[in-house]
TrEMBL record:
Organism: Thermaurantimonas aggregans
Subcellular location: Cytoplasm
EC code: 2.1.1.193
Swiss-Prot/TrEMBL catalytic activity: uridine(1498) in 16S rRNA + S-adenosyl-L-methionine = N(3)-methyluridine(1498) in 16S rRNA + S-adenosyl-L-homocysteine + H(+)
The protein's name in its UniProt record: Ribosomal RNA small subunit methyltransferase E
Length: 231
């Protein structure tokens, strides 16, 4: 059973949006009487049954409600947009599937592409959340001041960089927290000034291994490591 989105998921009759109704009725050709699951993207999960289908509206009778546990640990990803839109879109999709709480597109000195379509990325994130049965949609943000991002990051803050000595190897990352902020720079890495500012604001410099990784690959490696090490 797939997962679908409604602005409000509550007991009783819920009417899906025109876009979601079209997907249910015209694309998937679901029928009255079929079971369906809804979420509001904020943790609410509702089991129900389709009771009405028209040209632009699908009505769902919600029979049971629950609040799903939050994805843990909480991971806030701060990542520089990649040179091509397609790679950033892929990254948004995979970071959502891995349960990131927020994904912040971080404009750094060496960021190659600064034209950011947040609406497009939000749609990709919602589609990925539905596919992975994730009832918590990540917040998609844009920050153009890297120092502001380093300062405002929540939880334990890690910065993946080639800068300086003493970077922690993946096996040495402390993972005893329930919340992390992970900073991934652009191709060419953060500048020395950016890395120094991050460390001054409490970011812990880390290594992702001895191979040179693309931005999107580095982000997935970092997120996966935090998620798996915490189980």
């Amino acid at each position: 059973m797939g997962l679908f989105v409604a602005d409000e998921v509550k007991e009783g009759l819920v009417t899906l949006s025109p876009d979601e109704s079209h997907h249910v009725a015209r694309v998937l050709r679901m029928q009255v009487g079929e079971p369906i699951a809804l979420t509001d993207g904020k943790g609410t999960f509702g089991n129900g049954t389709i009771v009405h289908i028209s040209n632009k509206k699908v009505g769902v009778q919600i029979e049971s409600l629950s609040i799903q546990p939050k994805n843990e640990p909480i991971v806030h990803l701060y990542v520089s947009p990649t040179r091509t839109t397609e790679r950033t879109e892929w990254l948004i999709e995979k970071a959502t599937e891995l349960g990131c709480t927020s994904i912040c597109l971080l404009i750094c000195h060496r960021t190659a592409r600064r034209n950011i379509n947040l609406d497009r990325y939000e749609k990709i994130a919602i589609a990925a959340a539905k596919q992975s049965l994730n009832c918590y949609f990540p917040e998609i943000k844009l920050i153009t001041n890297s120092k502001e991002a380093f300062q405002s990051g929540l939880g334990v803050k890690y910065i993946a960089t080639c800068f300086g000595e003493g970077r922690l190897a993946p096996t040495a990352w402390p993972v005893n927290s329930t919340e992390y902020s992970l900073f991934i720079g652009p191709e060419g890495d953060f500048t020395t000034e950016e890395a120094e500012a991050a460390i001054a604001y409490g970011c812990i410099p880390i290594s992702l291994g001895n191979l040179r990784l693309r931005t999107e690959t580095a982000a997935i490696v970092g997120i996966s490591h935090l998620r798996l090490k915490s189980y």
